[in-house]
Amino acid sequence: MRAIIYCRVSTKKETQETSLERQEEELIQLAKRNQFEIDKIIKEQASGYDFEREGILELLERIKDPQVHAVLIQDETRLGRGNAKIALLHCILKEGIKLYSISHNGELQLSESDSMVLKIVGMVEEYQRKLHNVKIKRGMKRAVQNGYKPEKNLKNLGEHAGREKIEVPIEEIDRLRKNGLTFAEIAATMRGFGYNISKATVHRRYREYLEQREN
Q1: CB–CB of 202/173 below 8 Å?
Q2: Using an 8 Å Cβ cutoff, are 47 and 9 in contact?
Q3: Longest dimension (CA), the chain
Q4: In b/e form, how buried is each residue of 168-196, taking b as 16+ CB within 10 angstroms?
Q5: pLDDT score of 121
Q6: pLDDT confidence of residue 209
Q7: How confident is the model at residue 76, as a pLDDT?
Q8: Which residues does the annotation mark as catalytic?
Q9: Which residues contact 7 (CB under 8 A, 6 or more apart)?
Q10: Domains of the chain: total
Q11: Which of 12, 57, 74, 96 would you call most buried, defined as having the most Cβ atoms within 10 angstroms of its Cβ?
Q12: Looking at the structure, do residues 9 and 97 belong to the same domain, yes or no?
């Protein structure tokens, strides 16, 4: 499995460079103990309250790669402080990425308060997704009432008539992924447009697409 190492210190003072190097060394050892292949090492010197950090933005982009499974940090405060920390924890965990820390010598254990806040955020997002799906269904229903015939857009007509639609527009999946949607959200959106597809299938097709593009 592949993991990203993320190191951060709060200021750009020379005295902090030693701390940054120590974090890197300790996290490399943590990766070895947990048999992780290091995908990338990201280091930066910036305030944890600052959300617009080049390093953290690069991290959020890299974890979208299906081949990345974990992020290694010294502790959760290295990701950020205050509300920035909660937001970043949510962004990482909702991608199915595991967090490992030196402070826990393994998988990160969240505090009760952080876990509760993240659970609330997750519940809010779930209802937002449901509302989004309701809007899609409502829009499709109105379109059909106004004369739209979705069967004309299906690719499995003729000799394949009656079979479930399994072809999906991978370019659209790629576009939605670049816009920050999770695989579950993409699957829900595709189903709204008539594609009978699961989250797992979206994930697999997207991974195959990336591999073909790299080759």
Answers
A1: yes
A2: no
A3: 71
A4: beeeebbebbeeebbbbbbbbbbebeebe
A5: 85
A6: 87
A7: 93
A8: 10
A9: 20, 23, 24, 27, 41, 42, 43, 44, 73, 74, 78
A10: 2
A11: 74
A12: yes
Are residue 96 and residue 131 in the same domain, yes or no? no
> Could you identify the residue written with the tokens 């989004």?
132
Those residues of the chain that have pLDDT short of 70 are 14-15, 136, 139-140, 142-144, 146-167, 215
What is the extent of the structural domain holding 200?
118-214
Q: Which of 110, 126, 152 is the last residue of a domain?
A: 110
SS (H, E, C) 67-123: CEEEEEECCHHHCCCHHHHHHHHHHHHCCCCEEEECCCCEECCCCHHHHHHHHHHHH
pLDDT of residue 182: 81
Chain length of the chain = 215
- pLDDT the model gives residue 149: 60
Cα–Cα distance for residue pair 14/146, rounded to 1 Å: 67
CATH number of the domain enclosing 86: 3.40.50.1390
Looking at the fold, whether 105 and 130 belong to one and the same domain comes out as no
- The predicted-structure confidence for 131-166, as pLDDT tens digits, reads as follows 777 776 776 676 667 665 655 544 444 444 444 445
HEC string of 125-169?
Answer: HHHHHHHHHHHHHHHHHHHHHCCCCHHHHCCCCHHHCCCCCCCCC
Q: What is the side-by-side strand order in the sheet with 98-101?
A: 37-45, 2-9, 68-73, 98-101, 106-107
> 93 and 9, same structural domain?
yes
For 170, the token pair is 């991978």
* Type of residue numbered 135: K
